[in-house]
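User: Could you check the structure of this?
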Amino acid sequence: MNCNFRINPFHIVLVALFLLFGKVTLGQDTIRVMQYNLLFYGLYTDFCTPENNNVDDKDEYLRTLLGHFQPDIFTVNELGRGAHNLTRIRDNVLNINGVDYFEYATYTNTGNGWFANGLFYDSRKFGLYNEVIVNTVLRDINLYTLYYKTDDLALTQDTVFLTLIVAHLKAGQSASDQQTRTTMVTNVMNYLDDNDYKGNIMFMGDFNMKSSFEQAYQLMVNNPNQDIRFIDPIGVTGVWGNNSDMAPYHTQSPHTGSHPCYVTGGLDDRYDFILATKPIMEGSMGFQYIEDSYQAIGQDGLRFNQSLINPPNNSQPPEIIEALYLMSDHLPVMLDMVTVDVVTSLDHYPFEELSLTYPNPVGEKLRISLNSTKSGSVILNLYSLTGKLLISESFHYFEGSKSVDINVSHLSSGLYLLKFQSPDGYVSSHKIIKH
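Assistant: Sure, the predicted structure tokens are below.
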């Protein structure tokens, strides 16, 4: 989503010069995203106890890992029951040693299960725009929408958005388990489809899948709605589980032998994922995946059915390998993106003969005044910030001045995206504030 003008609190004039060079100016910034199953963080049971899964120790391991890799966005599974665990990670792990800018999204656990998902983000770079819970038959799947804080955000009120879907799907490989995963993913994909989500979206978490042939996975990557098809950044398809050819991608489990809390058996499953939509992979809407940046941290491809530490692992510094080994029975996955400018017109202004003015913010009516040097036509579309089309109008204009009123009284207060399109397909995009 982008905007090609500077917002005046009372009035906006669109002129050809702005659109000639119009774009969202993001500068150049690298965004690191990490996803991690924290293994019963802050939750004690008769098998995961203060002795074998101590939360104070886990904080130390997390400090080591996050301090080294410094993600801007950190999503988690198996966060123990209670919002205090989010606060604990923010205050004891992330916001330390002079850092004070990490925030977290709202804690949810509608089924009051043992654990929940979580999101932490660098508030210097991102703000939390929206949060949605997709209720499932097992546990919450969370949809968090962040907005990127562009350098001129205060002046232009223009930004790009990133939606993060964080899921911990049903474990187990029975037909019933697979069907539950299918139901969970179906709920998410139907929600995205029904609410016209598109653009920069990631689907991440512990998927508990053995292969890319599973129906739940196919719903993600081959969805009939191309706007919500997800892409595996490393493009690895086939049978992931217990397959030595897939050793470089396995994320569970770093442990062999037996342990009352950790899953053991060595690394032989690819359960942890970050998938992304086409705009992220191609960089068409403000964020672009950096090729070859996706990794399962600590995985060197040499430990099929073996532990993370035996044979010796030189893929990361020794303190990182030790923290990974002791922290969880999963490895975190991580990727990098770079911010890219979104150019909306390449060589000329599409409405050279037309200037448009309208009040901003708007109230009950959006009055658009046209001042033209010749006749023509224009299509106006108004979208929610999730990409849902709310209003579509087309009108003709002639030489001289004309005003058109569009009723927006039914819309809630907030930000909307206004797009003008010429008959030859050129589009200019602008933010509207509704009182």
